[in-house]
Each structure stands twice: as structure tokens, then as C-alpha cells.
Amino acid sequence: MTESSNNGVGPNVPLDRRDPATGQAPGPVDPALEAIDPDRGRPANVIATRGLSLRFGDKTILSGIDMLFPRGTITALIGPTGSGKSTFLRTLNRMNDKVSGFRYGGDVLLDDESIWASHQDLLALRRRVGMLFQRPNPFPMSIRDNVVAGVKAHRIAKGKQLDVVAEERLRQVGLWDAAKDRLGDSPFRLSGGQQQLLCLARALAVGPEVLLLDEPTSSLDPISTENVEAMLKSLAPALTLIVVTHNLGQARRVSHHTMFFYDGALVEHGPTEVLFEHPREDQTERYVTGRMG
Ligand SMILES: Nc1ncnc2c1ncn2[C@@H]1O[C@H](COP(=O)(O)OP(=O)(O)OP(=O)(O)O)[C@@H](O)[C@H]1O
Ligand SMILES: [Mg+2]
């Protein structure tokens, strides 16, 4: 048995190149571009959940979730408080594994391999599937050292290369001008929005394939929120993003797909525009029209 054969899902799933938002088939692909596509031959869905059930102790939080996350797309997770959004998100890079009472059933596949397979290395998994939290959490070290903390830990670069990485990533998130004269300073004097961008730069620096974001702008003012949203949009399709948000406008603005969680279930999911404009389920409609808390 090969390692990727768990749950009977082999590595040769045909590539689905339809636009996930519209379902339209793409135009002809330039063979030269195709040849240098780093994702060529990889499964179209970077993450898939198969009959995933999540429990804390005796309490089932979610059950039977089958979901595909197409590579290079942004998926929003919405639903009332306590509906299991964070629990689901944190499962995807095994952040719940050490939480007392946590149990799972079914599976999560990353590039067709179970994230719980015995050969999976947790550090390597977290490098591939990074995370940004609700509150900015810079480390107590300089701005520059924050950006390269993961890069050093994973020995991706060293010495002078670290300065190059720091500049490149700070530029990428639009923080370079604000930070370039204070790279050796504490990050805690940056504004909340800047701190969140710094944490994003740190998460990006290790080259993740997937980024999980749990309410990444809920502690930010509207201008910082706009900056972070613009950044997130610019990261796809190079990255796959999965973002929990209570801000329905944000889900509509940034995501291709939306999942609606309610009362222990994934009630509905689909292209964001369809889910908001033509929800199938009554519960979804009540939630997206603001008639449900
Ligand atoms: N460590 C834990 N131990 C026991 N129960 C937990 C734990 N973490 C979460 N829960 C429970 O799991 C359920 C789902 O919580 P979760 O945090 O996933 O919801 P959420 O949708 O992210 O809510 P919010 O929008 O408020 O962040 C809740 O009933 C919560 O009390
Ligand atoms: Mg939550």
C-alpha cells in the first residue's frame, strides 16, 4: 500500500481547471506556461476533508464534513459564534491535536495524504499550512527577527540572506516604508494593523501553500482591515487561503467560496456569490440577510 492511498484516494485525481467562482472552463493553456507551473501534476484540491467529525470529550462539534479546497482559491468560513468554525480551521494544521478531549473521525488530506499519517512531520506540516490568528502575536524580538523567525527555525536561509528575506516580505505586505528605519526596534510599538501585517509577513516568509486565518481583522480598524483584505486578495492564486470571518461583507469581498456552519453542521457551501444571493437553505438565508444573530 502506498502512503497516499489512504481512504482510497490516489494521487492521480484529474486536475479540475474550471474557475471555482463561475464553474467556467478556462481558455487554452499556454504549453510553455504549463511546463513551468510548479503545481503541475498536483491534485487540484490542496486540502480535502472526508467524513470529518470533531469532538471535545462527549460533545460533537461537527460531523460528516466532506469539503474540497481548490488550490489557489480563498474560502470563507461563516456562521454564528460557537458553530465550530475555529475548531474546523485549527484541525486543518493539527492545532487541536494537543487540546484536551479533542477527538476526530474521518480524515483531512493534504495533497491526497492524510495529515495524521505516521510519516507526517508536524513542523513540516505547519510550514506548508500556516496560520494567522485573530490578535496579532508578534514575538518579543525585533521587527526584523520576527519576519525571519520561521525562516531561521526551518533553516531556509541564514546570515545576510535573512536581511534580504526580511525586506522582501515586509515589502510584500506593504510594511517596508514604515519599518525600514526601525528594523531593530520592538514590534509592539507598531499599530495593531501593522502588527497583523508583520505577523502575515512572518507567516509568508516560510513559503506556505495554505494559510489559515481566524478572524484576522476583527481587532483592526476599518483602514487596517482594508489593507489586510487587499493583501489577502493579492495572495491567491499563489496561495490557498481559508479564512474565518464574522464580517459578511469581508466574506463577499475576498472569497471565492463560502462555507456556512450552524448548529453542529456544515449547512451549505458553494461559490460565494451563489451562497449570498441564492442560498439553498433557509438557515443560510436568515444568516446572510442578518436575520439570525
Ligand atoms: N478546548 C475546548 N474544549 C471543549 N469545548 C471546546 C473547546 N474549544 C471549543 N469548544 C466548543 O466547541 C464549540 C465550537 O467552538 P469554536 O470555537 O469552534 O466556535 P466558533 O464558530 O469559532 O465561534 P466564534 O465565532 O465565537 O469564534 C463551542 O461550543 C465551544 O464551546
Ligand atoms: Mg472562532
Brief account:
Helices cover 33% and strands 23% of the residues. It has eleven helices and ten strands.
Detailed description of the structure:
This protein is of the alpha/beta class and about 290 residues long. The chain has a single domain, classed as P-loop containing nucleotide triphosphate hydrolases (Rossmann fold, 3-Layer(aba) Sandwich), CATH 3.40.50.300. About 35% of the residues lie in helices and about 25% in strands. It contains eleven helices and ten strands. The strands form two sheets. Strands 6-7-8-3-9-10 form a six-stranded mixed β-sheet, with helices on both faces. Strands 2-1-4-5 form a four-stranded antiparallel β-sheet, covered by helices on one side. Strand 1 and strand 2 (about 60-70) form a beta hairpin. Helix 4 packs across helix 5 and helix 7 runs parallel beside helix 8. It starts with about 30 loop residues before the first helix and ends in a 5-residue tail after the last helix. The model is unreliable at about 1-15 (pLDDT under 50). The structure holds adenosine-5'-triphosphate (ATP) and magnesium ion (MG). Adenosine-5'-triphosphate (ATP) binds next to helix 2.
